[in-house]
Amino acid sequence: MRRPRWWAELFLIAVVYAAYSGGRLLVKGDEASAVEHGLAILRLEEGLGVDAEHPLNRLFTAVPALGIPADFAYASLHYLVTPAVLVWLFRRRPAHYRAARTWLMLATLLGLVGFTLLPTAPPRLLGAAHGFADTMAHFASYGWWGGEASAPRGMGGLTNQYAAMPSLHVGWALWCGVMLWRYGRTPLTKTLGVAYPLVTTLVVMGTANHYLLDALAGAAVMGAGLLLAPYALRFADRIRGTAEAPPVVSGGWETSAGERIPGQRSVPSTADDTSEWGLPCSSEAESLGNAR
């Protein structure tokens, strides 16, 4: 399988991320509806007895040794780890890179749909009466962020603070974890694959930036992206094949010296006889043999 061109991949990822970031800013929603949606999620969690945000947020606020690293993790890791895993796949697992990249991009765009349909205020914006503390504002003197999510001081207007549902912090971390577990070859890599999404889930709740249901929705969005990715890849291959590959007039039928009737020639298998999703591919000769 031909390795994707790095400059084309970089351009594609930049375009998708720019569309995602711009879309988030354009669909902020109004504060009243976002707060109402946040309160509805909180009431549902309280009714189910799964409102884990309160004890985690109190712990992170009371213990700076937990709260400060959590704030740094929330503000930076998804910008660092996700691209790093993409580069690692591109260099070390090129046969699986394209499928993994497509999965990540589709899930990200699905998350944007969620922000559009359900603008949601995170716990830290529900007001003091609901018992949440904004740890990033509380420990702002230790970092570059201000009181408006993870945006640098003075740049809060460049972020959508009502994009809590679903949590793509958790979604992207889950994607990274699956990649590290699936394609890592050392126990440390696989351990990081399990730990990273779990720690991220605790961080987003402990810093009062997401609800537990936001985290579950982030995982659901990644699941939907995984299901849609094969269809997107086939569609892209069909378009690329139409644009680049000229029609094969002979259809694989060839005539050797001394033959008057063309015969179908089998194509030898390639060195990497697996699909992008790690599944074995059947050769043409095998399929013809089965047909007989």
Rounded radius of gyration (Å): 24 Å
Strands of the widest sheet, in order across it, are 1-2
From the helix content, strand content and strand pairing, which structural class follows? mainly alpha
The largest β sheet comes out as:
2 strands, antiparallel
Mean pLDDT: 82
The outline comes out as globular
Helix content: 55-70%
Task: Give a count of the beta strands, DSSP E runs of length 2 or more.
Answer: 2
Beta-sheet strand percentage? under 5%
Low-confidence sequence ranges: 247-253, 267-274, 278-292
Number of helices: 10
Instruction: List the helices and strands in order.
Output: HHHHHHHHHEEH
N-to-C terminal Cα separation, in Å?
A: 29 Å
Task: Describe the protein's architecture and organization.
The chain is mainly α and 292 residues long. It has helices spanning 6-26, 31-48, 53-62, 64-92, 94-117, 135-138, 168-183, 187-206, 212-244, 284-291; strands spanning 253-254, 263-264. A two-stranded antiparallel ribbon has the order 1-2. A hairpin with an 8-residue loop joins strand 1 and strand 2 (263-264).
Name the descriptors.
292 residues, mainly alpha, two-stranded antiparallel sheet, 10 helices, disordered C terminus
